Amino acid sequence: MTRFDILKAIAPLIRDHLVVCNIGSPSQELHMLDDQDSNFYMLGTMGLSSSIGLGLALVQDKIVVSIDGDGSVLTNLGTLPTIANNVADNFVLLVIDNGSYGSTGDQPTYAGQKTSLTALARASGCETVVECPAVEITDVLQTALGSGKMTVIICKCSSGNATVPVITMDPVVIRDRFMKAVKRV
Amino acid sequence: MSAHQKIIADFVSNRIEFVTSVPCKQLAGVIDQLGETPEIHHVPCNKEDEGMGLCAGAFMGGKRAAILMQNTALGVTLNTLATLTQFYRLPLPMLISYRGEVGEPVACQVEMALHTKALLAQLHIPTYHFHKPDDLAELDRILKHTFMCNKPVAILTDASFWKGVNA
Prior knowledge:
By secondary structure, chain A is α/β, with parallel strands linked by helices. Chain A has helices at 3-14, 25-34, 49-59, 70-75, 79-85, 117-124, 137-147, 171-183, and strands spanning 18-21, 39-41, 64-69, 91-97, 100-101, 107-108, 129-133, 151-156. Chain A has a single domain, classed as Rossmann fold (3-Layer(aba) Sandwich). The longest helix of chain A is centred in the last third of the chain and has 13 residues, at 171-183. By secondary structure, chain B is of the alpha/beta class. A six-stranded parallel sheet of chain B has the order 2-1-3-4-6-5, with helices on both faces. The interface between A and B is medium-sized, with 35 and 33 residues.
Protein backbone atom coordinates (compact mmCIF):
# COMPACT_ATOMS: atom_id res chain seq x y z
CA MET A 1 0.00 0.00 0.00
CA THR A 2 1.12 3.54 -0.78
CA ARG A 3 0.13 6.85 0.83
CA PHE A 4 -2.66 7.17 -1.74
CA ASP A 5 -4.10 3.79 -0.73
CA ILE A 6 -3.97 4.82 2.93
CA LEU A 7 -5.70 8.14 2.27
CA LYS A 8 -8.38 6.33 0.30
CA ALA A 9 -8.92 3.87 3.14
CA ILE A 10 -9.13 6.50 5.88
CA ALA A 11 -11.11 9.18 3.98
CA PRO A 12 -14.46 8.02 5.44
CA LEU A 13 -12.95 8.11 8.97
CA ILE A 14 -11.50 11.60 8.80
CA ARG A 15 -14.21 13.27 6.70
CA ASP A 16 -16.09 14.53 9.76
CA HIS A 17 -13.00 15.73 11.62
CA LEU A 18 -10.65 18.66 11.24
CA VAL A 19 -7.72 17.57 9.10
CA VAL A 20 -4.40 19.37 8.63
CA CYS A 21 -2.65 17.86 5.65
CA ASN A 22 1.02 17.91 4.76
CA ILE A 23 2.44 19.86 1.81
CA GLY A 24 2.76 18.44 -1.70
CA SER A 25 1.54 15.01 -2.74
CA PRO A 26 -0.35 14.23 0.52
CA SER A 27 -2.53 17.35 0.22
CA GLN A 28 -2.96 16.91 -3.54
CA GLU A 29 -3.98 13.27 -3.13
CA LEU A 30 -6.43 13.99 -0.31
CA HIS A 31 -7.85 16.94 -2.22
CA MET A 32 -8.52 14.73 -5.23
CA LEU A 33 -9.88 11.81 -3.19
CA ASP A 34 -12.22 13.66 -0.86
CA ASP A 35 -12.07 17.44 -0.74
CA GLN A 36 -13.76 18.80 2.39
CA ASP A 37 -13.93 22.31 3.82
CA SER A 38 -12.70 20.74 7.06
CA ASN A 39 -9.39 19.93 5.34
CA PHE A 40 -6.58 22.44 5.74
CA TYR A 41 -4.20 21.93 2.83
CA MET A 42 -0.66 23.12 3.33
CA LEU A 43 0.58 24.69 0.12
CA GLY A 44 3.98 25.54 1.60
CA THR A 45 6.02 25.20 4.78
CA MET A 46 7.28 21.61 4.89
CA GLY A 47 7.28 20.17 8.39
CA LEU A 48 4.58 22.19 10.13
CA SER A 49 1.51 19.97 9.74
CA SER A 50 1.94 18.59 13.26
CA SER A 51 2.55 22.06 14.71
CA ILE A 52 -0.50 23.61 13.06
CA GLY A 53 -2.60 20.63 14.16
CA LEU A 54 -1.38 20.79 17.74
CA GLY A 55 -2.01 24.54 17.98
CA LEU A 56 -5.53 23.97 16.68
CA ALA A 57 -6.22 21.05 19.01
CA LEU A 58 -5.01 22.96 22.07
CA VAL A 59 -7.45 25.85 21.67
CA GLN A 60 -10.73 24.08 20.84
CA ASP A 61 -12.44 20.75 21.55
CA LYS A 62 -13.02 19.17 18.14
CA ILE A 63 -10.83 16.25 17.06
CA VAL A 64 -7.89 17.27 14.90
CA VAL A 65 -6.01 14.82 12.66
CA SER A 66 -2.66 15.99 11.33
CA ILE A 67 -1.51 13.97 8.34
CA ASP A 68 2.26 14.15 8.18
CA GLY A 69 5.11 12.31 6.50
CA ASP A 70 8.38 10.86 7.72
CA GLY A 71 10.45 13.40 5.81
CA SER A 72 8.38 16.27 7.17
CA VAL A 73 8.62 15.08 10.77
CA LEU A 74 12.38 14.74 10.34
CA THR A 75 12.58 18.36 9.20
CA ASN A 76 10.68 19.55 12.30
CA LEU A 77 11.84 17.04 14.91
CA GLY A 78 11.36 19.58 17.69
CA THR A 79 7.63 19.08 17.25
CA LEU A 80 7.65 15.70 19.03
CA PRO A 81 8.78 17.05 22.44
CA THR A 82 6.34 19.96 22.08
CA ILE A 83 3.49 17.52 21.38
CA ALA A 84 4.52 15.25 24.25
CA ASN A 85 4.65 18.06 26.77
CA ASN A 86 1.45 19.83 25.68
CA VAL A 87 -1.10 17.05 25.70
CA ALA A 88 -4.26 17.59 23.63
CA ASP A 89 -6.43 14.50 23.87
CA ASN A 90 -8.36 15.60 20.78
CA PHE A 91 -5.18 15.35 18.66
CA VAL A 92 -4.08 12.50 16.43
CA LEU A 93 -0.80 12.77 14.54
CA LEU A 94 -0.79 10.31 11.66
CA VAL A 95 2.67 9.97 10.16
CA ILE A 96 2.53 8.16 6.84
CA ASP A 97 6.03 6.71 6.88
CA ASN A 98 6.97 5.56 3.41
CA GLY A 99 10.68 6.00 4.01
CA SER A 100 10.97 8.58 1.29
CA TYR A 101 10.55 12.20 0.30
CA GLY A 102 7.57 11.48 -1.95
CA SER A 103 6.84 14.94 -3.32
CA THR A 104 10.39 15.48 -4.52
CA GLY A 105 10.98 12.19 -6.33
CA ASP A 106 11.01 9.47 -3.66
CA GLN A 107 14.53 10.09 -2.38
CA PRO A 108 15.12 7.89 0.71
CA THR A 109 14.72 9.41 4.21
CA TYR A 110 16.62 8.27 7.29
CA ALA A 111 13.29 7.01 8.69
CA GLY A 112 13.47 4.28 6.07
CA GLN A 113 16.97 3.38 7.22
CA LYS A 114 18.32 3.31 10.78
CA THR A 115 16.03 5.92 12.34
CA SER A 116 12.77 4.97 14.03
CA LEU A 117 10.19 7.75 14.31
CA THR A 118 8.25 5.51 16.68
CA ALA A 119 11.21 5.35 19.05
CA LEU A 120 11.80 9.10 18.64
CA ALA A 121 8.17 9.87 19.51
CA ARG A 122 8.36 7.62 22.58
CA ALA A 123 11.71 9.08 23.66
CA SER A 124 10.20 12.56 23.29
CA GLY A 125 7.61 11.61 25.89
CA CYS A 126 4.56 10.91 23.73
CA GLU A 127 2.50 8.48 25.78
CA THR A 128 0.39 6.74 23.14
CA VAL A 129 2.48 5.84 20.11
CA VAL A 130 1.31 3.11 17.74
CA GLU A 131 3.35 1.77 14.85
CA CYS A 132 1.39 -0.22 12.30
CA PRO A 133 1.64 -1.59 8.79
CA ALA A 134 -0.55 0.13 6.20
CA VAL A 135 -3.08 -2.71 6.09
CA GLU A 136 -4.02 -2.04 9.72
CA ILE A 137 -4.48 1.73 9.42
CA THR A 138 -8.28 1.90 9.48
CA ASP A 139 -8.48 -0.15 12.69
CA VAL A 140 -5.65 1.74 14.34
CA LEU A 141 -7.02 5.15 13.36
CA GLN A 142 -10.56 4.26 14.41
CA THR A 143 -9.27 3.19 17.81
CA ALA A 144 -7.26 6.39 18.17
CA LEU A 145 -10.23 8.59 17.21
CA GLY A 146 -12.42 6.87 19.79
CA SER A 147 -9.85 6.70 22.55
CA GLY A 148 -9.99 10.26 23.85
CA LYS A 149 -6.20 10.09 24.11
CA MET A 150 -3.63 12.02 22.15
CA THR A 151 -2.15 9.45 19.77
CA VAL A 152 0.83 9.39 17.45
CA ILE A 153 0.48 6.79 14.69
CA ILE A 154 3.47 5.79 12.60
CA CYS A 155 2.03 3.96 9.60
CA LYS A 156 4.65 2.14 7.55
CA CYS A 157 3.94 1.85 3.84
CA SER A 158 5.51 1.72 0.38
CA SER A 159 6.72 4.82 -1.40
CA GLY A 160 5.07 6.17 -4.52
CA ASN A 161 2.68 8.94 -5.48
CA ALA A 162 -0.56 9.03 -7.41
CA THR A 163 -0.74 11.26 -10.45
CA VAL A 164 -2.99 14.06 -9.25
CA PRO A 165 -3.31 17.76 -10.09
CA VAL A 166 -1.83 20.51 -7.93
CA ILE A 167 -4.23 22.44 -5.71
CA THR A 168 -5.13 25.74 -7.33
CA MET A 169 -7.54 26.92 -4.62
CA ASP A 170 -6.47 30.26 -3.15
CA PRO A 171 -4.86 29.91 0.30
CA VAL A 172 -7.20 32.50 1.80
CA VAL A 173 -10.18 30.46 0.55
CA ILE A 174 -8.70 27.30 2.10
CA ARG A 175 -8.19 29.14 5.37
CA ASP A 176 -11.59 30.83 5.37
CA ARG A 177 -13.64 27.72 4.71
CA PHE A 178 -11.53 25.76 7.20
CA MET A 179 -12.16 28.35 9.92
CA LYS A 180 -15.88 28.18 9.20
CA ALA A 181 -15.69 24.38 9.54
CA VAL A 182 -13.93 24.81 12.89
CA LYS A 183 -16.77 27.03 14.13
CA ARG A 184 -19.57 24.85 12.76
CA VAL A 185 -21.51 23.02 15.46
CA MET B 1 3.07 48.29 36.53
CA SER B 2 6.38 46.92 35.22
CA ALA B 3 7.13 46.84 31.49
CA HIS B 4 6.69 43.07 31.53
CA GLN B 5 3.27 43.44 33.10
CA LYS B 6 2.31 46.20 30.67
CA ILE B 7 3.29 44.06 27.65
CA ILE B 8 1.22 41.12 28.84
CA ALA B 9 -1.66 43.39 29.88
CA ASP B 10 -1.71 44.77 26.32
CA PHE B 11 -1.72 41.20 24.97
CA VAL B 12 -4.68 40.33 27.19
CA SER B 13 -6.66 43.48 26.37
CA ASN B 14 -6.16 42.68 22.67
CA ARG B 15 -7.57 39.18 23.29
CA ILE B 16 -4.33 37.32 22.63
CA GLU B 17 -4.94 33.95 24.30
CA PHE B 18 -2.13 31.81 22.89
CA VAL B 19 1.58 32.62 23.05
CA THR B 20 4.56 30.55 22.01
CA SER B 21 8.16 31.43 22.78
CA VAL B 22 11.78 30.60 22.37
CA PRO B 23 13.56 32.31 25.25
CA CYS B 24 15.98 35.22 25.20
CA LYS B 25 17.58 36.82 28.24
CA GLN B 26 15.95 40.13 27.34
CA LEU B 27 12.50 38.50 27.23
CA ALA B 28 12.91 36.47 30.43
CA GLY B 29 10.72 38.81 32.48
CA VAL B 30 7.94 38.74 29.89
CA ILE B 31 8.05 34.95 29.76
CA ASP B 32 7.86 34.83 33.58
CA GLN B 33 4.84 37.11 33.43
CA LEU B 34 3.12 34.71 30.99
CA GLY B 35 3.24 32.07 33.69
CA GLU B 36 1.19 34.33 35.95
CA THR B 37 -1.42 35.13 33.31
CA PRO B 38 -4.29 32.60 33.27
CA GLU B 39 -5.90 34.31 30.25
CA ILE B 40 -2.97 33.19 28.06
CA HIS B 41 -2.07 29.63 27.11
CA HIS B 42 1.74 29.57 26.86
CA VAL B 43 3.28 26.77 24.79
CA PRO B 44 7.08 26.99 24.61
CA CYS B 45 8.40 25.73 21.27
CA ASN B 46 11.78 24.40 20.17
CA LYS B 47 12.22 26.46 17.03
CA GLU B 48 10.58 29.63 15.83
CA ASP B 49 9.13 28.25 12.58
CA GLU B 50 7.54 25.46 14.63
CA GLY B 51 6.12 28.20 16.89
CA MET B 52 4.62 30.01 13.90
CA GLY B 53 2.91 26.74 12.94
CA LEU B 54 1.43 26.48 16.44
CA CYS B 55 0.23 30.08 16.18
CA ALA B 56 -1.37 29.42 12.78
CA GLY B 57 -3.29 26.47 14.23
CA ALA B 58 -4.36 28.41 17.32
CA PHE B 59 -5.56 31.33 15.23
CA MET B 60 -7.58 29.08 12.93
CA GLY B 61 -9.03 27.51 16.08
CA GLY B 62 -10.37 30.90 17.09
CA LYS B 63 -7.68 32.24 19.45
CA ARG B 64 -5.44 35.16 18.68
CA ALA B 65 -1.80 34.10 18.91
CA ALA B 66 1.62 35.74 19.28
CA ILE B 67 5.26 34.67 19.31
CA LEU B 68 8.18 35.80 21.47
CA MET B 69 11.56 35.23 19.85
CA GLN B 70 15.05 36.58 19.24
CA ASN B 71 16.07 38.33 16.02
CA THR B 72 18.85 35.79 15.44
CA ALA B 73 16.11 33.28 14.55
CA LEU B 74 14.59 35.42 11.83
CA GLY B 75 16.43 33.48 9.12
CA VAL B 76 14.88 30.14 10.03
CA THR B 77 11.39 31.63 9.85
CA LEU B 78 11.53 33.28 6.42
CA ASN B 79 9.89 30.44 4.51
CA THR B 80 7.19 30.05 7.15
CA LEU B 81 6.48 33.78 7.21
CA ALA B 82 6.16 33.87 3.41
CA THR B 83 4.33 30.59 2.70
CA LEU B 84 2.19 30.19 5.81
CA THR B 85 1.66 33.41 7.76
CA GLN B 86 1.58 35.78 4.79
CA PHE B 87 0.24 33.40 2.12
CA TYR B 88 -2.80 32.47 4.24
CA ARG B 89 -3.10 36.03 5.63
CA LEU B 90 -2.72 35.21 9.30
CA PRO B 91 -2.13 37.98 11.84
CA LEU B 92 0.93 37.39 14.03
CA PRO B 93 2.48 39.83 16.47
CA MET B 94 6.16 38.95 16.85
CA LEU B 95 7.67 40.42 20.01
CA ILE B 96 11.35 40.18 19.15
CA SER B 97 14.36 40.60 21.36
CA TYR B 98 16.59 42.73 19.11
CA ARG B 99 20.04 41.53 20.06
CA GLY B 100 23.18 43.09 18.64
CA GLU B 101 22.29 46.77 19.10
CA VAL B 102 24.12 49.36 21.27
CA GLY B 103 24.67 47.87 24.72
CA GLU B 104 25.16 44.34 23.35
CA PRO B 105 27.97 42.47 25.11
CA VAL B 106 28.29 39.60 22.60
CA ALA B 107 29.98 40.52 19.31
CA CYS B 108 28.42 37.69 17.31
CA GLN B 109 24.92 39.03 18.00
CA VAL B 110 25.76 42.14 15.96
CA GLU B 111 26.02 40.02 12.82
CA MET B 112 22.30 39.15 12.67
CA ALA B 113 21.33 42.61 13.96
CA LEU B 114 22.84 43.99 10.75
CA HIS B 115 20.44 41.89 8.68
CA THR B 116 17.33 42.09 10.85
CA LYS B 117 15.64 45.20 9.48
CA ALA B 118 16.75 44.46 5.91
CA LEU B 119 15.16 40.99 6.03
CA LEU B 120 11.95 42.33 7.56
CA ALA B 121 11.81 45.08 4.93
CA GLN B 122 12.45 42.56 2.15
CA LEU B 123 9.46 40.54 3.43
CA HIS B 124 7.29 43.69 3.66
CA ILE B 125 6.68 43.04 7.34
CA PRO B 126 5.51 46.11 9.27
CA THR B 127 8.32 46.75 11.75
CA TYR B 128 8.39 48.82 14.94
CA HIS B 129 11.54 49.44 16.95
CA PHE B 130 11.31 50.01 20.72
CA HIS B 131 14.47 51.89 21.72
CA LYS B 132 13.29 54.11 24.59
CA PRO B 133 11.00 53.10 27.46
CA ASP B 134 8.24 55.45 26.24
CA ASP B 135 8.05 53.50 22.96
CA LEU B 136 6.14 50.82 24.85
CA ALA B 137 3.11 53.13 24.92
CA GLU B 138 2.50 52.27 21.24
CA LEU B 139 2.25 48.49 21.77
CA ASP B 140 -1.51 48.46 22.22
CA ARG B 141 -2.05 50.28 18.92
CA ILE B 142 0.49 48.06 17.12
CA LEU B 143 -1.41 44.97 18.25
CA LYS B 144 -4.70 46.45 17.04
CA HIS B 145 -3.01 47.28 13.73
CA THR B 146 -1.77 43.67 13.42
CA PHE B 147 -5.24 42.17 13.83
CA MET B 148 -6.74 44.83 11.58
CA CYS B 149 -4.45 44.03 8.64
CA ASN B 150 -3.97 40.24 9.14
CA LYS B 151 -0.20 40.36 8.74
CA PRO B 152 2.85 39.28 10.70
CA VAL B 153 4.17 42.39 12.47
CA ALA B 154 7.60 42.72 14.08
CA ILE B 155 8.19 44.61 17.34
CA LEU B 156 11.93 44.88 17.86
CA THR B 157 12.96 45.54 21.44
CA ASP B 158 16.63 46.47 21.85
CA ALA B 159 19.06 46.55 24.78
CA SER B 160 18.56 50.29 25.41
CA PHE B 161 14.81 49.74 25.71
CA TRP B 162 15.21 46.92 28.21
CA LYS B 163 17.86 48.82 30.17
CA GLY B 164 15.52 51.79 30.35
CA VAL B 165 12.41 49.90 31.41
CA ASN B 166 14.32 47.82 33.96
CA ALA B 167 16.08 50.88 35.48
